[in-house]
Write a structure and sequence with these properties.
This protein is globular. The protein has 15 helices and three strands. The chain is mainly α. The chain has a three-stranded antiparallel β-sheet.
Length: 363
């Protein structure tokens, strides 16, 4: 497959010459430079494309000499402005490198090429020969053959009887990784690996949208906090014991509003100012009803579509669960808008300022 003719004209990095994961990731960094976009701008463009690309996640992925997960890679390439044909080329090269260099080792296991002294999975290695072993057995069998045979029969008979004993029980099925002793009791910000990925997958299964990229960054913390609030748990933003248990229970999926419904409701509530309200909501929270920013340096968090602070919620006699309800958040924002006559209560100079850098004015 050839890159489109526009590639040469625009000097798009060509991944086909990459021979290692490190070279491939270096070309991905060059692609971002070619796009001229910041990490936060890439995150915003990904949302427009219908993808999930937290800026903290892609920043971490480009800082490691390992192949990014295909889901994350595709969202990143699309956000950078690659065509479907270019995306296919990058994905093909990644798959080639995965096969030829085993760039994606099982999370938590040894990296390819690591000198761990352990055999590769599925491969048996012969035990080192022991000098004099054959002679010892010959002497033993020559001198004590009857006793030896009798001993072996006794041992084998005992083992067989134990296997057939009605009291023997099959081993219990292995517990979920998330709650096993292979994962830390507290999965928190900065965790990377199989346990963080399993936590992300559990959040996905409960209806929360985020990438399962094995990196516990601010975006994952935000989703964990939202799940905790909606299930009545303390909003610690960490995968503690009660949170893991709740995630693995058979609860209903988290229900929230799609952007089309939010836009329609804003038009109904704000009338002719509905479009302006939607622009503000997109700037403050990307139009995500479960968006939680912070905590900032003062420990303050902001909640929902219009990012009401902890102090504002206290004044409104409400809590985080209400703030994450899009209907409540829209009605509360409408009340502020009616009192002030405009949207001057909020300040959003830089769209998609994702993790607590925005501060509604007057708070």
């Amino acid at each position: 497959m050839d890159l489109p003719s526009r590639t040469a004209a625009r000097s798009v990095p060509d991944p086909r010459g990459a021979e290692t994961a490190e070279q491939y990731v270096g070309l991905l960094r060059g692609l971002r430079a070619w796009s001229g976009l910041t990490f936060r701008q890439l995150e915003k463009r990904a949302v427009t494309n219908g993808d999930v690309l937290p800026y903290s996640t892609i920043h971490a992925a480009l800082a490691r000499p390992r192949l990014p997960r295909e889901e994350l890679l595709t969202a990143y390439l699309r956000a950078c402005g690659c065509t479907p044909q270019e995306v296919a080329i990058w994905v093909d090269v990644r798959r080639r490198l995965t096969v030829t260099t085993a760039g994606e080792r099982p999370l938590g296991g040894p990296r390819p090429g690591d000198d761990t002294g352990r055999p590769a999975p599925g491969r048996r290695t012969a035990a080192p020969p022991r000098r004099g072993l054959g002679r010892a057995w010959a002497n033993l069998l020559g001198r004590r053959w009857p006793a030896t045979v009798a001993g072996l029969v006794l041992v084998l008979g005992t083992a067989g009887g134990a296997a057939r004993s009605p009291e023997a029980r099959p081993s219990a099925p292995e517990a979920d990784l998330l709650t096993s002793d292979r994962c830390p009791a507290l999965i928190a910000l900065g965790e990377y690996g199989q346990c963080a990925q399993r936590l992300q997958e559990s959040l996905q299964q409960r209806g929360l949208k985020l990438p399962a990229d094995a990196s516990f960054g601010p975006y994952t913390r935000m989703r964990v906090t939202a799940f905790q609030v909606l299930t009545g748990l303390p909003p610690t933003g960490m995968g503690d014991g009660p949170t893991k248990t709740a995630l693995l229970s058979r609860g209903a999926a988290t229900a929230t509003w799609p952007k089309a419904r939010i836009a329609r409701r804003l038009n109904e509530v704000f009338g002719s100012s509905g479009g302006e309200a939607m622009v503000l909501a997109k700037c403050l929270s990307l139009g995500d009803p479960l968006w939680i920013a912070g905590p900032d340096r003062q420990g303050v968090r902001r909640w929902g579509l219009f990012q009401f602070t902890d102090l504002e919620l206290l004044r409104l006699r409400a809590g985080p669960a209400q703030a994450l309800d899009p209907e409540w958040n829209i009605q509360a924002a409408h009340g502020v808008w009616q009192r002030t006559g405009d949207f001057s209560h909020w300040s959003c100079e830089s769209p998609n300022d994702a993790f607590g850098l925005l501060r509604p004015s007057g708070t």
